[in-house]
Structures are given as C-alpha cells and as structure tokens.
Amino acid sequence: MNYRSLTTFLNLFIFATYSVCAQDLSRISIIPEPVQLVRNEGSFVLPEEVVLKAPASTEVNQTIILLRKKIGEVAGSRITTTNREEQATLRLILNTIQDTLLKNEGYQLVVTPRNISIRANRPAGLFYGVQSLLQLFPKEIEGDKLVRNIRWQIPCVSVTDYPRFGWRGLMFDVSRHFFTKEEVKRYIDNMVKFKYNLLHLHLTDDEGWRIQIKSFPKLTEVGAWRVNKVGYFGTFSAPTANEPKDYGGFYTQEDIRELIQYAAERYVNIMPEIDVPGHSLATVVSYPELSCTPGVEKYSVRSGEAIMDWSRGAPPIALVDNTLCPANEKVYEFLDKVISEVAALFPFEYIHMGGDEAPHNFWEKTPEIKQLMQQQGLKTMQEVQGYFTKRVEAIVQSKGKKFIGWDEILDGGPSKSTAVMSWRGVEGGIKAANAGHEVVMSPSTYAYLDYMQGDVSIEPRVYASLRLNKAYQFDPAADISDPRFIKGGQANLWTEQIYNTRHAEYMLWPRALAIAESVWTPLNKKNWTNFYTKVEEQFKRFEVAEIKYAPSMYDPIISVSGGANNSITVELTTEIPGLDIYYSFDNSFPDTFYPRYKAPISIPKDAANLKIVTYRDKKQVGRMITASVADLKARIRKR
Ligand code: ACM
After folding, report:
1. Which residue in the list 279, 352, 360, 437 is annotated as catalytic?
2. Which fold has domain 555-638?
3. How far apart are the C-alpha atoms of 613 and 589, rounded to whole Å?
4. CATH 3.30.379.10 for domain 24-161
5. Residues near ligand 1 with C-beta < 6 Å?
6. Which atom of ligand 1 is nearest to the CA of 448?
7. pLDDT digit string (tens) for 284-311?
8. Partner of 513 at 20 to 30 A CA spacing, among 227, 324, 505, 581?
9. What is the pTM of this model?
10. How far does Cα 122 stand from its chain's mean position?
C-alpha cells in the first residue's frame, strides 16, 4: 500500500469511526442561506495532510492565506500543493467555460467523504465558497490558534450559490467616533464572512473630518479633533476654550490606499462619503469662509452637544450653522479640489456626497442666498439645495465618477446617472427607481443598526428601535415595479452612541447577519425560523472568534397599556418562540421558581420595579431586565 492509498484507507476508517459518533452533522448553518444546498450522505474528515490545488492567479492569494490560516494553523493539517486535480483533497477551480448562473460572485461547493471542491467563474466566487466551507466546520475553526482534540469533520454537501444583489453594503460612520485603520480592517474581516462586498465609509460630519486632503490641511489639523465627552451623546455640555481638543483622528492618504487594497483583496469596494451641504460643522470650523453665516469662527467641532432642534421634524432647525454656503463660489472651488483628491484615491465608481438633513434656517437669513435665488429663479430653500446638489453632481461627474447621495438629493432633480440611497424608509428609493435612477435601499425602518435592538431598559439608549426580526424582513426590492433599478441594499452603522469597536460589534451582530441574508439570499429561501436557529449557532462561533454580539433576541418585548383607574397592564412577548418568561414586582431576581408569564399582567399599586428574565428548558437565556414602574408609566403617556 503506497502512502496515498494508506491515507485514503485511514480516512475511510476514520470516517467509519466518526460516522457513528455523536457529533450532530445534520444541522447545516450557513449565513447567508445559499441558493441551493443539498445534504449528501456521509462526512469529510480533515486529514493530517491536505493536498491543495488552486489557481496560480494572485487574485486568489487572500483566499489561500485564509485557508492556510484555518486549515493549517487552527485545524493543524499540513498543507501541500499539487498541480494534479485528481490528487487534491481541496480543489479551488476557476471555470474556463463560464457558468452563466454563477456570474461574478457565485460558486459551487461540493464536499464528498474524499475531497472538497469549490468552482467559480471569478476569484470572488472562490472566496465566498471558502466562507461557506468554513461555516461547515466545527465552531473551533473560528479561533486563531491551533486547536487539538477536535474531530475536524464536516457534512457532505452540494452547494450552488450566487447573490441576489450586486450591492451588499455596510456603512461605517467613522466621523462621529473615529475608528483606526486596524479597526476598519477588522470590520472588513468580519463583514466578508457573510459575503458583504461594499464598505461605505462616512468620512465627514459635524463631529470630525477623517480623510487627509492635501489642498486643505486644516480639515484634519483642526477638523479631525474635538473635546472628548462620554454619556448620552446629543446632551453634552458645549466644549469650552480650556478643554483640550485631543480626541479624534484621521486617515492619511497612505492609510486610505492601504485600506482600499486590503478591502479589494477581500473583494470589497470602499465607497467614500463626503457629506454636504449639511453635517459640515467640522468643515466650516476648519475653513470659516465656506459658510455664509458670520461668526462661525467661534464654533468648535461638535463633541455631542445639541446643535439641531428636531421638534418640528425635517429639515431640522439648526442652532449653529453647520452648512456649506450654496451661494459662495469658494465652496464649489473647495469641493472641486476635495473631490479631485477623493476621486484619485478611491477606484470605486461612485462618490457619495451626502445631501441629508441640511437645515435651511440660516440660509433663509442670508443676503447672498436671496441674491442667488433671484439670479437663478429659485423659489424655495429646497430649490436652493437642489441647485447646490446639481453643481456638486457636475463636479463629481467631471472627475469621471458617478454621484450617489441620500434620498434628499431627489429634490434637486438629479441626472439619470445619479444613484439614490434611500434612508427615510423606502419611499425615496421607490420614487427614484420609478424615475429611472439606480437605487440602494438602506431604510432606517429595516437597516439602521445604530438603533436599539431590544428594550430600552436593557439596551444602551438610542432614540429608536430595530429588532432582529424586523431587520430580517428587509427586502430591497419590495414594491418596486422594475427591480433592475435596485442595485441592492445596505445596513448603516451610525456611531454617535458607539464609542469603541466592542460596542460597534454588539450593534452589528446579529442584525448584520439578517441584512446579509436579505441582500444575498433569494426571497423564497428566507425563513425566520431557520434564520434565528442559525443565528444561535453563529453566536457560538462569535464567542470563539471573540466577536461581541447582542443577545437581545432572547429578551422579552415589553408593551404597556393604560386602563381605567390609572391601572397599567404589561404585555410580554418574545421575538423567538420557546422561551418562558419569569417576573417579579418585589425587586428580587426572578428565576424558574417565580411566576411564569401567561397573560398580560397588571402592575400592583405600589410596585416600583418589574424584573423579567427568559429561560429555555430551565436554562437562563435572556438577561435580567429591570424596568422601573415610573418608566413603564411614561411609555403610556408618550402614546
Ligand atoms: C441619515 O441617516 N441622515 C442619512
């Protein structure tokens, strides 16, 4: 018996041994759910030596590095290579004849008891095939050190998979809080596991300008730094002259090039956003001449103090003028230079120029804007903003790029080649698609990952909520008559209340899994029950990978209603089935010996706190929640 047949024999022997062992291989848990997945008989056991056959293209380098890391360093197999397909245990194959179904990002993954093969038309498909393959391995594969005493056994499957949408985005707001280059890389590492391919970097806002612009050095010398505050962002005291402005940071152009390359090697495009004409306090603080309001030189980059009054809805009333002046030619000269540098750095075809939430109340008081309105025949402030948008659009196009902005840009009647990112629900996106614009759906109603994912009594407080099951209902093409205009969908992670990467991860996961499945998986393959079960498997993998996630789906949903004689009734439901809710009103910690919730409960007259916790099969799964009766009462008044 030669060495090869010996290993084959041993494999078969090991397979026979393992196939009677207790490990449950019946649960396959790939997120996003593949287009077609067939579970075949048997399993593959990683041999001591894995013989790899892979294309010579440098474009697959990161895929091979990833395989070497996981199968070599973590699972501990010795990886050798071969040019002979029939000798290989692990085969990555680029199709010579294109498979029309798979297009640029699809793959076929076949695992048999003897070998693993991944086929694709393009290197991106091989990368995604490997991501799916790794999710078939035991969770220990998610670590970064050698794990011994594990049976590296995976189920035999045939998978054919390709994305529903070409734009599968995640936005990272690096302005409200700055995240380092290394932190952005980790963000990319995590998003690609779930086949996201677009990173939207929100690079500028009132709280910081984060990209070096060589023609305007003060943007980062001044605009990237502010006074550090913690607490509830939006309520902080205004920065004073004696507080150090040493909190923040920015990416040099070299950093940006490095990030673009890092992302590209993982099949991710980076789209820059320069948000204008609103959200520009850091800009006007750096260059006050870009404002048309006298006195802005006294402003500071925002630390989180109130600068907008939203009580009358959108657009907000600005308490400080955080806009660029549309009647000032210097603004267009400035933007021309900034966009030139940005266009030269980022290979992606679109530049996002914001356009959202620009307040108009300072413009209304500006003589130069009155003059502009007369000259241009503009009747409203919306039309003034439309004029600005069209000029910026022309600048972007003059650099050979396409313009994309938040759905407010529709007011200006942008040209057909301009794309719209719908955030105020899906309405703007539907209107834009009907008018023949390309659209990316990122509605706050399904895809705003800065919102709370559970009850305010346990989650860090934010002004709105978005639970996992709602995020999972995201369908970028719902109610669209011609889905060809829908480029895809995106989740947005705004970071006003996110001070560090651990909390960024908590806010991303698991909701970014729901969005990943919504932009990749065909609608008829989406299934909530299957999904949350896979999420539970994924939680175990996150723990191994030391990625923080929110366990909020295990916590109850609290609804309060008022009745006669000031009575208050609390209704408790759960996001996932099979949970038992236990509660107390006596300030002690409920467990399975306490009353189990069966029907809406009335709050006893003098009770101060409702404590709630969920169990499954007598094991605590939810967190201990304390909701004060005063807080519950306030919820009724709000309605
Ligand atoms: C946005 O959330 N203001 C786009």
Report:
1. 279
2. Immunoglobulin-like (2.60.40)
3. 8
4. yes
5. 356-357, 406, 423
6. 2
7. 999 999 999 999 999 999 999 999 998 8
8. 581
9. 0.95
10. 25
